[in-house]
Amino acid sequence: MSQRPLELILARNLMSALSTPAFLVDEGGILVFYNEAAGSLLGKRFEELGTVGPDEWGSLFGPFDGEGEPIPYDELPLVVAVRNGRPAHSTFAIRSTDGTSHTVEASAFPILTAHGSQGAIAVFWPAATNGTGH
Amino acid sequence: MEPGTEMEVRLWGTRGSIPSPGPETIRYGGNTSCVGVTLSDGSLLALDAGTGIRNLGLSLPDEPTRLHILLTHLHLDHIQGLVFFAPAFRPQTEIVIWGPASPEASLRDRIGRYISAPLSPVEVRELPCDVSFRHCPETEWEIGSARIHAASVAHRGPTLGYRIEDGDRSLAYIPDHEPALGADIDALEEDWISGFALARDASLLIHDGQYADREYPEHVGWGHSSLSHALSFARRTNAGQTVLFHHDPMHSDEQLDQLGEEAKQAWTALGGEPGGIELGVEGAKYEPHARVPSATSAG
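^ Those are the sequences you sent over. The predicted structure of the assembly is below.
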């Protein structure tokens, strides 16, 4: 009886109404949704991409550090949030499908329920500075 | 009902929010949510314990009885009848109360806030029956001849819907539900619709139908469905028969008659089979039929 957890359903509904880029992963780190604002940032709507595994979505859009080096997957805020059950914040660059680079600040927090972690949400903002850090 | 027959369902309370007795609600009923289910092996279930459970209790014989009460949530219109449930005051009765878990307090303690002074003349510990409280597990479990599945659904506060499978018959009970909150229910994929797996191909779906479409804009986020949302949910889940439930306390029998006509017309327009939709009436009985899974939802 496959069904998304209610907390993910409600998170997606909320994110759909936000003008801030937002990403949603499930408890396995699979990217299960991002909103229109995130689609505009990435240059590709979620409906075009569909769900992607944790080893795939990172390589699609970066992220990169200040020197242009890929940031290890384990250090991404979304991954920290979903794996460790802790909030995480970071600044990094992502690459749109048209090749444009955007430096963003990302805050991620886990979705914890009575049944444990169900996933995590990350929200992006344009970086206040061009600095990169974790 | 004698063991060996099929599942039987009876509506003991169809009203939402608050009891609304009176001449204007006499046909659909004024008691709040309660549905009695007799399984094929004779096991007894009560789905919610609104004021309708009082009459369910009065219908049971005064003899040793074991029954399970499955609570969707703890809003008053779903538990108010507990302290007026006659079998609870008989020492030969065993009652198992199931409900949603909460990080805040146990099910027993949360229900105890109602069954205690000053709201109640008795305390839980004073009930003569053998009563126990259990949090619904994440996985399916068995009661008598049925397999029970509970899942969180979109409402205010921790709220469950239930699916009861007994042989080839299934009942989905989602009385308080707002599946289209912040979403277009017609555009969503199935697994992103609250409660979908509970209701998929159910023989009988008892679902929230509290608001007419014209009333819903004033009640977005209150945790209940508009008529159109309830019908879309029923069509997409391929329920065999749908009973709209949890009637608004402001709706008179005449208004519900009108809502029922709107429902039938809309149901037909959606391609639903005639007779596949109706409004719940207090006292109504159902014997759910076996349901052939739809092609899109099979497997």
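The longest helix of chain B spans residues 253-269. Residues 31 and 234 of chain B are 24 Å apart (CA to CA).

Shout if you want it in another format.
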